[in-house]
Amino acid sequence: MTTAVLQRPTLVLNRNWQPVRVSTVARSLVLLWNGTAKVVDPTDFQQYDWQDWSQLKPLDGEPFIQAIHSRMRVPEVVSLTVYDRMPQMDVAFSRRNLFKRDHYQCQYCGVQPGGDDLTIDHVTPRSRGGLSTWENCVLACVECNKKKANHGLAEVGMRLKKTPIRPKWKPLYAISSMPIASWTKFISEAYWNVELEP
């Protein structure tokens, strides 16, 4: 149980409270212990150092870390005390991130049938030298993928809804599950929608 709690995601903000990455609870507690971060309570935005945070008792139903003689609350958001620049990070090309970039939507007809009914399509087919890159791969529903098959778009009269590009990094790409509800106080809804750079 404790191991699972330590692997939960924690949102990391810079000194100016901009999201810079998603870390684990274990890593955020190390940052808290060595003084390079403070826990931000999402209910009242109060900040806590290690000594103050370790004295707080978990609320009923709230996840906690069991120590020998006490229980510690699990931080959902931490703010760095010494770092105030946004990191330059690349989004790894992966199936999971491609689904996030394309909002689980067919890039040809626009339907959102669900993850099981979507495939990854190479705009320029691999048989014609197309590579598995951000700029050449899109989500396609089964019907559109069948229609396009091993052809170019012009050959079958199909068009993309938008040009596939490498997305700009956002914390959404760093987690494999849905974000924690309290994070919405620090990250706007538009930010989680993963809009692409023009």
* Largest sheet properties: 5 strands, mixed
Strand fraction band? Answer: 15-25%
Name the poorly predicted regions.
Answer: 190-198
Q: What's the structural domain tally?
A: 2
Shape, principal axes of CA atoms? elongated
Taking the alpha carbons of the first and last residues, their distance comes to 44 Å
Strand order in the largest sheet: 2-1-7-3-4
Content-based structural category:
alpha+beta
Average pLDDT, rounded to a whole number, is: 83
Order of helices and strands: HEEHEEHEEEHEEHHH
> How much helix, percentage-wise, in residues?
10-25%
Beta strands, count: 9
Number of helices: 7
**Over the alpha carbons, how many angstroms does the gyration radius reach?**
21 Å
Structure description:
The protein is 21% helix and 19% strand. It has 198 residues and is of the alpha+beta class. It folds into two domains: 2-88 and 171-192, no CATH class; 95-156, DNA Binding (I), subunit A. It has a five-stranded mixed beta sheet with strand order 2-1-7-3-4. Strand 1 (9-13) and strand 2 (19-24) form a beta hairpin. The longest helix is centred in the first third of the chain and has 9 residues, at 25-33.
Task: Briefly say what this structure is.
The chain is an alpha+beta fold and 198 residues long.
Comma- or semicolon-separated keywords:
single chain, 198 residues, alpha+beta, DNA Binding (I), subunit A, 2 domains, five-stranded mixed sheet, two-stranded antiparallel ribbon, 7 helices, 9 strands, 19% strand
Outline the fold blueprint.
Layout: H1 2-6, E1 9-13, E2 19-24, H2 25-33, E3 37-40, E4 47-48, H3 50-55, E5 64-66, E6 71-73, E7 77-80, H4 95-101, E8 118-122, E9 137-141, H5 142-148, H6 153-156, H7 189-192
Parallel strand pairs: 1-7
Antiparallel strand pairs: 1-2, 3-4, 3-7, 5-6, 8-9
